[in-house]
Task: inverse folding
């Protein structure tokens, strides 16, 4: 006969473990609180309409079907939004990184004259700005309303990312290394491309992810700037109109309209919009954590 | 005497050299660095500084027909009208209230969570927990809003389905003003609690292990060590972050409020950025909306500077 493990534990050890159990339990509950809402939406998106209407779907799909997803992939406007989001995110990340690198490398060189003034010019934008309306009027007067450039250019300079990259370059590229390269005849452009950038790969990856995820998730500026050209709505804005405000209906073929329950469609479009993030999340999490640590160090 | 004169001459020649180095010397030596800087400077001047001139609208009676420059100067008239609006008082109250509640709950929860995570010795359990707890931070507010309605909606939300099946009545978590306030704060805690632990965990990992050993020798239990060793050791981090967030009580996320708002709950969802959007972009009253935005920006700037001053007084690094 096998004796249950718990009876073997001495009383002293057990009293120590009760805290351990409590802590693990509360952590488990909180972690599940982060996971289960999403799991429920996934379950709903894979379920048959009838079960959802009867409110029988909780954490596992009932009457498994991919019907809602096939409808989403048939909805040209959603696919178009995904396409806009991808293009905007890629262009935004590339331009944002170029602008940030061009600012961070010169400002990381102690011999640069006027460094303090120029840094102040950049950092001041963290604390004060024109605000929503002046930004809107600027985008309007540049003729960028209802174009993808309104989602790319205004936000592509981030003083916060500049500070992170500047202090990273300053600490990883010593002046002596730069000077010896200069003695060998290399100019600053050459030093930047052949020495600084290759040595800063990890931080460049982190900042690119900051830019990309930030752009992918934002919808405020799209809400302001993309009003009439519906085809240019990025995915998050499309999602806002479809699900949160529910002012827009899914573009379905006439026959399926009566059959479909918007709840299932809503759930599946939420999953559809979240999947790209969920897929890359395990890989990018590490970089983000490093970025937070760097950002907390004073620039 | 002669030596002194020679020294003077050397100093003079040094000065001369320095003067020669001034002006174009640095430009010639580092022209590539300045050329690189032109790109970000252009971006900042166009997209950050040019809009600041748009703040003039707050002191003008903006008429589309007359344009930005042609509109009449009216001094502080726009502000006088703004302060008289009942929506203005409500928006200020809501902004302060939502941020203060956030400070009470969203600020403290990561500290508690970091203390709990720190007690876990098993690497795998900790890693899995952290991965799950960080997840909401990566979701957009639209998605969080959508999930919130799927869960908390009165008509078909899952939690209400469970409540009903357990024999209770459906609760309008998001469709009633007071409940909305609680849901808004709870969702904020949910979104940020895991992510907020990162800085605290980093601070905790820097604590000298000898402190814990000494505490163990003195007979301190787990809670005792948490309270008397861990918490005091991360006090600096907590105080710094607290002061920084105090500087932002006049700020506020447009996206979060907007994604969670609905037509049934307008009492607490009118915050300053939402009102700026309604008045300006939806309503076309650019002058009043700009004035409101400027009001918020100035108070926000003062608060941030104050917070920085306090942080420096307390011997912290400050942020500027």
Result:
């Amino acid at each position: 006969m096998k004796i249950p493990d718990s009876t073997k534990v001495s009383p002293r050890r057990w009293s120590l473990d009760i805290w351990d159990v409590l802590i693990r339990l509360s952590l488990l509950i909180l972690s599940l609180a982060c996971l289960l809402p999403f799991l429920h939406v996934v379950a709903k998106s894979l379920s048959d309409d009838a079960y959802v209407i009867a409110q029988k779907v909780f954490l596992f799909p009932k009457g498994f079907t991919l019907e809602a997803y096939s409808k989403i992939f048939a909805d040209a406007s959603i696919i178009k939004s995904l396409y806009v989001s991808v293009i905007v995110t890629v262009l935004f990340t590339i331009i944002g990184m170029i602008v940030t690198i061009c600012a961070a490398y010169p400002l990381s060189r102690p011999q640069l004259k006027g460094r303090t003034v120029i840094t102040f010019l950049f950092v001041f934008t963290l604390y004060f700005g024109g605000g929503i309306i002046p930004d809107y009027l600027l985008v309007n007067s540049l003729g960028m309303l209802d174009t993808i450039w309104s989602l790319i250019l205004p936000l592509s300079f981030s003083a916060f990312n500049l500070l992170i990259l500047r202090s990273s370059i300053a600490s990883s590229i010593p002046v002596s290394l730069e000077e010896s390269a200069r003695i060998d005849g290399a100019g600053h452009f050459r030093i930047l491309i052949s020495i600084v950038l290759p040595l800063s790969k990890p931080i460049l990856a982190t900042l690119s992810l900051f830019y990309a995820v930030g752009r992918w998730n934002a919808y405020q500026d799209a809400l302001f700037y993309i009003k009439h050209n519906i085809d240019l709505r990025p995915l998050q804005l499309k999602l806002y109109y479809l699900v949160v405000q529910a002012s827009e209906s899914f573009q379905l073929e006439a026959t399926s309209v009566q059959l479909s329950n918007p709840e299932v469609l809503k759930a599946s479009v939420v999953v559809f919009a979240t999947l790209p993030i969920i897929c890359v999340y395990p890989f990018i999490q590490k970089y983000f954590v490093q970025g937070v640590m760097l950002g907390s160090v004073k620039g | 005497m002669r030596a002194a004169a020679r020294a003077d001459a050397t100093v003079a020649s040094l000065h001369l050299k320095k003067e020669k180095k001034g002006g174009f010397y640095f430009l010639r030596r580092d022209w590539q660095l300045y050329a690189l800087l032109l790109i970000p400077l252009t971006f900042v001047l166009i997209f950050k500084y040019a809009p600041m001139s748009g703040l003039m609208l707050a002191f003008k009676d903006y008429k589309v027909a007359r344009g930005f420059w042609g509109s009449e100067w009216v001094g502080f008239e726009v502000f006088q009208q703004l302060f008289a609006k009942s929506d203005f008082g409500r928006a200020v109250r809501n902004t302060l209230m939502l941020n203060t509640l956030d400070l009470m709950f969203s600020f403290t929860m990561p500290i508690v969570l970091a203390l709990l995570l720190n007690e876990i010795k098993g690497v795998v359990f900790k890693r899995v927990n952290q991965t799950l707890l960080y997840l909401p931070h990566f979701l957009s507010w639209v998605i969080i809003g959508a999930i919130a309605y799927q869960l908390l909606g009165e008509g078909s939300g899952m939690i209400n389905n469970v409540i009903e099946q357990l024999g209770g009545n459906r609760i309008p978590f998001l469709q009633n003003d007071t409940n909305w306030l609680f849901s808004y704060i709870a969702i904020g805690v949910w979104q940020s609690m895991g992510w907020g632990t990162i800085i605290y965990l980093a601070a905790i990992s820097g604590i000298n292990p000898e402190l814990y050993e000494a505490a163990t020798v003195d007979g301190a239990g787990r809670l005792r060590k948490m309270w008397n060793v861990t918490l005091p050791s991360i006090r600096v981090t907590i105080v710094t972050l607290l002061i920084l967030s105090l500087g932002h009580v006049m700020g506020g996320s447009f996206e979060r409020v907007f994604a969670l708002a609905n037509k049934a709950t307008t009492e607490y969802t009118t915050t300053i950025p939402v009102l700026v959007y309604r008045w300006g972009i939806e309503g076309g009253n650019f002058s009043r909306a700009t004035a409101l935005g400027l009001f918020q920006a100035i108070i926000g700037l003062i608060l941030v500077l104050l917070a920085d001053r306090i942080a420096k007084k307390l011997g912290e690094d400050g942020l500027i």
Remarks:
- The longest helix of chain B spans residues 177-205.
- The two ends of chain B are 49 Å apart (CA to CA).
